[in-house]
Specification:
UPF0182; cell membrane; six-stranded mixed β-sheet; transmembrane; membrane; transmembrane helix; 42% helix
């Protein structure tokens, strides 16, 4: 009893902690609704299994023959079983009921959706039912019938066993003798079981519209003309056989039901298997393309509808491959916004330049966003400076880990299209305290992707703050402390709550520490994805939450999807496979197959107090509408989204990846061509990965102007190449898919063009090289290789950044930043060169502006964002070159820390950089001469001459 009480109290502590957490975050109704639903379903499952099994066994036992003659073996069985009979007759049903209840409560969402189902407004092409029947009703009906079938199957087996044990069923050689009471009970139960099978077979005919086959998902010719009618006939036969069992219960003859059962088995073989095979083999296969055409068309239309690509704008695009002077003049704004900072590569630069202390960290993969700077949209690479308790080393005590180091500090943003003269990012928001162009905002990060498991914050009014706010810098290593004054977690305002959380986190310090007062709050479950998933368990979340400065605070923006795997005729995809690429190798969430997806919810999590806000982004979506009936008042309408928030939400990448995967095949809208697969596409592999890798190239966010758009907009794009392998594989572009990802900046109003998908289809000739071809040409070009060899001096590493594809100049321009990283342990990549390619021509220069001019005959007609290089940190990227310590600035105006230099400053910076390179070239010449390597000596000499010429040009 003591052990049971202890276990029970631990369970209670976890449940009570959940109530406190949900109550604090304002979603306690979600928890209580889920608990009530689970509890009710557990009781239903328990009773629906335990009661019929118990009743069936009791009836079998009480109607047993009193004077049955048993053989010696059954006598021994009874002797063993009789002392345990009462326990077994109650214990077995209870145990089975518990298992059934646990299974039923785990599927609590299904009956709630069925009870609150919302019509879709469109019908399937075969039965004419509303789509909601397949998404909400059919799965529920099949689940109920399956559960009931399992109950009666198990009960029938136990009844047979009980009757056999007590002599109601006797086997004498070939003769089976069944008592009247056993006959009636078994016949009735068998009849009910067969009735349930008849219903199950009847429902199976509707399920053909969501089953996958070798050709499509959904019913094909054989299904529509053989399988579906056959299942209807089999259901009728099963119902008739069930009636025969009921007749047997009355007249006492088993011949008719046994003959009926045999007929059912034979019919299932003939009607269910043989007849469809004959139709497929002798009718469909000889004329498959013609007969399957209408069903393929159903699949094309339904798949495009289910994945939100039905309104795709397909634009024929005859891409130019001639790089003529002035070709980019009409695309000047797009050219100026081409992103050079690769968020997958410059994370180490953020760490070395902006980390400041070992207990801070930045993620390896940064995010992209955009801000209005001086009235223009500026694409940025952003990250928050979060905590890294492992950096404390020996100082990682309980007190430090949970009371002192409680939060990160600041958002760091770098211009996506700019670089300093030495290749560093140009920060538009940086430093501690945070300064830059983003204005004043709350910089503290209490809720982030790498926040500690839990922190205890807050203190009595007037008490000394103990939470480290940020290092103030200076020679005395002064620290600034702060006390959390928000509402971010449950309050520890009594001894009982402290005990609850001491048990939850297995730490007696929470209960004993004198710093844990009645004014303290405990912050936990701090990952933004985790918080949104807990308050909206019905959503599938995008795997890439990103931080933005919105309305004076840092918030995490997360996209939520409503999904289904029961949309008729829609292709099923494994979501985890579809979203995997070089930026998302191992999704944090496990997904099943889906064939319907909508971005129904935009969620935000305040990085300071953890508050979660859900906005209904697609209020008319039927699954979301059903959940709003279940959880009323948990979602806010889109009309309550501020203009500042609207300017930072974007079209989600995971949804786009699903759509591009589907469009690889379903861009073809004519059934005959689809059947022939004469124009199937696929996403190219990431050309920056090893050649043996099968990792796909991710989509990229860029501000650009697609054909069909009047002005550039923030967009997400991906490319397509032919879907072939081996000798037939050709890495040429076949399509270019982009979506307008800009939601506008008006309060509660989505921009008209948001979500518009445009597909540029390229002709057979002239061919446009794909990313793989461009990367191969870049790697093998002699002039480029010579320059790369110079960059690799001193065992430096050359890193290829993301290879971007931009529709400008009437064609497709490739842009790739090239980074150089020295061999030191604390070095980081510096942007040194830019590759550009257009058609079969390429250029490789120090800046994008120079590369474009070189590519387009000396004058591209447009200026890139890096035309004038700001002065940056000099050096090789070591900590010695880090910026000033936090707090060492007297400027509190909030202006950007990177001020564009004067022309003289730019010239001086370029001269310093050229002198450093020239010095290295001299060293290379001397080393090559000593080694007798005259080829390397010539390369170094040529480089030195080039550098001298550039310095003479600068000095006039």
């Amino acid at each position: 009893m003591v052990a049971a009480l202890v276990v029970g109290f631990f369970i209670f502590a976890g449940l009570y902690a959940d109530i406190l957490w949900y109550d604090q975050v304002g979603f306690v109704s979600v928890l209580t609704t889920e608990w009530i639903a689970r509890g009710v379903l557990f009781l239903i499952g328990f009773v629906a299994m335990a009661l019929p099994v118990w009743a069936a066994v009791q009836i079998a036992y009480r109607s047993r023959p009193v004077y049955a003659k048993l053989n010696s073996q059954l006598d021994r069985y009874q002797e063993v079983f009789e002392p345990l009979r009462r326990l077994a007759m109650y214990g077995v049903p209870i145990l089975l009921g518990i298992f059934a209840g646990v299974s039923a409560q785990a599927r609590w969402q299904m009956p709630l959706l069925w009870l609150n189902r919302t019509p879709y407004g469109d019908t399937d092409p075969i039965f004419g039912f509303d789509i909601s029947f397949f998404m909400f009703e059919l799965p529920f009906y099949r689940s109920v019938v399956g559960f009931a079938s399992a109950v009666f199957f198990i009960a029938t087996l136990l009844v047979i066993a009980t009757n056999y044990l007590y002599g109601a069923i006797r086997v004498n050689g070939r003769e089976v003798v069944i008592s009247k009471s056993a006959r009636i009970q078994i016949a009735i139960m068998a009849g009910i079981y067969l009735l349930l099978q008849a219903v199950s077979i009847w429902l199976d005919q509707y399920a053909t519209l969501t089953e996958s086959n070798d050709l499509i998902t959904g019913a094909i010719y054989t299904d529509a003309n053989a399988v579906i009618p056959g299942r209807a006939i089999l259901a009728a036969i099963a119902a008739v056989v069930a009636v025969l069992f009921f007749v047997t219960a009355i007249i006492g003859r088993w011949r008719l039901p046994l003959i009926g059962t045999a007929l059912l088995v034979i019919s299932s073989l003939l009607i269910g298997s043989l007849y469809p095979w004959v139709v497929q083999r002798f009718q469909v296969d000889p004329s498959e393309r013609t007969l399957e055409a209408p069903y393929i068309q159903n699949a094309i239309d339904s798949t495009r509808e289910a994945y939100g690509i039905a309104d795709l704008e397909e634009i024929p695009y005859t891409a130019s491959t001639d790089a003529e002077p002035g070709a980019l003049r009409e695309d000047a704004e797009t050219t100026a916004n081409i992103r050079l900072m690769d968020p997958a590569q410059i994370g180490p630069a953020f760490e070395q330049l902006e980390q400041f202390r070992q207990y801070y960290q930045f993620p390896e993969q940064l995010n992209v966003d955009r801000y209005q700077v001086d009235g223009k949209t500026q694409d940025t690479v952003v990250a928050v400076r979060d905590l890294n308790l492992a950096g404390l080393g020996g100082g990682e005590t309980w007190y430090n880990s949970h009371l002192v180091y409680t939060h990160g500090y600041g958002l760091v943003a770098a211009a996506g299209n700019q670089r300093s003269v030495d290749g560093n990012p140009v920060f538009i928001q940086s430093g501690i305290p945070s300064t830059g162009v983003l204005g004043d905002f709350e910089p503290r990060i209490y809720f982030g992707e790498t926040s500690p498991q839990y922190s205890i914050v807050g203190a009595p009014e007037g008490g000394n703050p103990i939470e480290l706010d940020y290092p103030a810098g200076g020679d005395d290593n002064e620290q600034v402390y702060n006390t959390f004054d928000g509402d971010g977690g449950p309050k520890l305002d009594n001894v009982f709550k402290k005990l609850i959380y001491a048990l939850k986190f297995q730490s007696e310090q929470i209960f004993l520490s004198d710093q844990v007062t009645n004014d303290s709050q405990i912050l936990y479950d701090r990952d933004p994805l985790q918080r949104v998933q807990k308050v909206a368990p019905y959503l599938t979340l995008d795997t890439d939450p990103y931080p933005s400065v919105v309305d004076g605070k840092i918030v995490w923006i997360i996209d939520g999807y409503t999904t289904s795997d029961a949309f008729p005729y829609s292709k099923k995809l494994s979501m985890s496979d579809a979203i995997a690429d070089s930026q998302n190798l191992s999704p944090t969430l496990a997904f099943d197959e889906v064939n319907y997806i909508r971005n129904s919810v935009k969620a935000t999590v305040d990085a300071y107090d953890g508050s979660v806000t859900l906005y209904a982004w697609d209020e008319d979506e039927p699954i979301l509408a059903s959940w709003q009936k279940i959880f009323p008042s948990t979602l806010k309408p889109m009309s309550e989204m501020s203009g500042d928030l609207m300017s930072h939400v974007r079209y989600p990448a995971d949804l786009f990846k699903m759509q591009r995967t589907v469009l690889g095949t379903y861009h073809v809208t004519e059934a005959g061509s689809f059947y022939s697969r004469d124009d199937a596409w696929t996403t190219p592999k990431d050309p920056t990965q090893p050649s043996a890798s099968n990792i796909l190239q991710p989509p990229y966010y860029l501000t650009m102007q697609m054909p069909g758009q009047d002005v550039p907009s923030y967009s997400l794009y991906s490319t397509f190449i032919p879907d072939a392998s081996g000798a037939q594989s050709r890495n040429v572009l076949k399509g270019y898919l982009a979506v307008d990802a800009d939601a506008g900046s008006e309060d509660g109003t989505r921009a008209e063009g948001y979500g518009t998908l445009r597909l540029l289809t390229l002709p057979q000739a002239p061919t446009v090289p794909g990313p793989g071809q461009v990367q191969n040409v870049f790697n093998s070009d002699p002039s480029v290789s010579a320059q790369l060899n110079i960059l690799k001096q001193g065992q430096s590493e050359v890193i290829n950044g993301n290879l971007l594809t931009v529709p400008v100049g009437g064609g497709l321009l490739y842009v790739q930043p090239v980074y150089v990283k020295s061999s030191g342990d604390t070095s980081y990549p510096l942007l040194q060169k830019v590759l550009v390619a257009f058609g079969d021509q390429l250029a490789f220069e120090d800046t994008l502006d120079a590369a474009l001019d070189a590519l387009f005959g000396g004058d591209s007609g447009a200026s890139a964002g890096d035309g004038e290089l700001p002065v940056g940190q000099e050096g090789d990227g070591s900590p010695d070159d880090a910026p000033a310590e936090p707090g060492d600035t007297d400027d509190d105006s909030g202006d950007t820390p990177v001020v564009p230099p004067t022309d003289t400053a730019t010239d001086n910076a370029e001269l310093r950089s050229l002198l450093n390179q020239a010095n290295q070239a001299l060293k290379d010449k001397q080393a090559a001469l000593q080694d007798g390597d005259f080829a390397a000596y010539g390369v170094a000499d040529a480089k030195l001459a080039e550098l001298v010429a550039q310095m003479l040009s600068i000095t006039g």
